[in-house]
Amino acid sequence: TGYAAEGGLDWSIQEIHGITATFFYQNIEDWIQWVPGINGVYRPQNIKEVRIKGMETNAETNFKVGLVSFRTKAGYQFTRSVTKQTHDTDQAAVGKQLIYTPVHTGTAALGSAYKTWSVNLFLQYSGERYTDASNSPIYALDPFALVDFSVAKAWSQKRHNVDFLLLVKNLFGTTYQLYSGRAMPGRNFTL
């Protein structure tokens, strides 16, 4: 049970278009959150009241230099998801960020295209994630940044289109976790 409000702005400034800012607010009663149990198995837990507020911003621009076209995009999200009331056994959680919900996240992308070739670079950032309701920094998961890279080529032959894509995810082999004890893949490739 709860209520929510959201509002935003969208505008353009010369070559920069798609500039957006969205603000959001939610107040939820009887929030269900999945939390790790003693043996690592996740179980549902009821939180009496949660308040979520924040903002999301994005900007995008496209431009050409000679025959090469470029596209850039960047985004940032600030999210405060706080336990406002809880049951008597969980008082340490009051006023704290919900587990596994980073306060700061961001993305950036740069792409370029020349005739039938394209190259893209993508960056994703996630801030610290708490793994316990008291937000102890000892058990928090470290912030991380991931970089993905792709190169693509397109061919057209009569009625047939062929696309080739090489994607390298986690280009620098960053060690990171989204959930405690659950390792994420290192550098990996898709062809």
Question: What would you note in describing this structure?
Answer:
This protein is 0% helix and 67% strand. It is mainly β. The strands form 2 sheets. A 9-stranded antiparallel sheet has the order 1-2-3-4-5-6-7-8-11, with no helix packed on it. A hairpin with a 5-residue loop joins strand 2 and strand 3 (42-65). The protein starts with a strand and ends with a strand. The mean pLDDT is 92.
Give me the strand/helix succession: EEEEEEEEEEE
Categorize the overall geometry: globular
Q: How would a textbook summarize the main sheet? A: 9 strands, antiparallel
How much helicity do the residues have? Answer: under 10%
Structural class by sheet pairing and helices: mainly beta
Total number of helices: 0
Mean pLDDT: 92
What Rg is obtained from the alpha carbons, in whole angstroms?
21 Å
Strands of the biggest beta sheet: in what spatial order? 1-2-3-4-5-6-7-8-11
Distance between the termini: 45 Å
Strand content range: over 45%
**Low-confidence runs of at least 5 consecutive residues:** none
- Find the count of extended strands (DSSP E, 2+ residues): 11
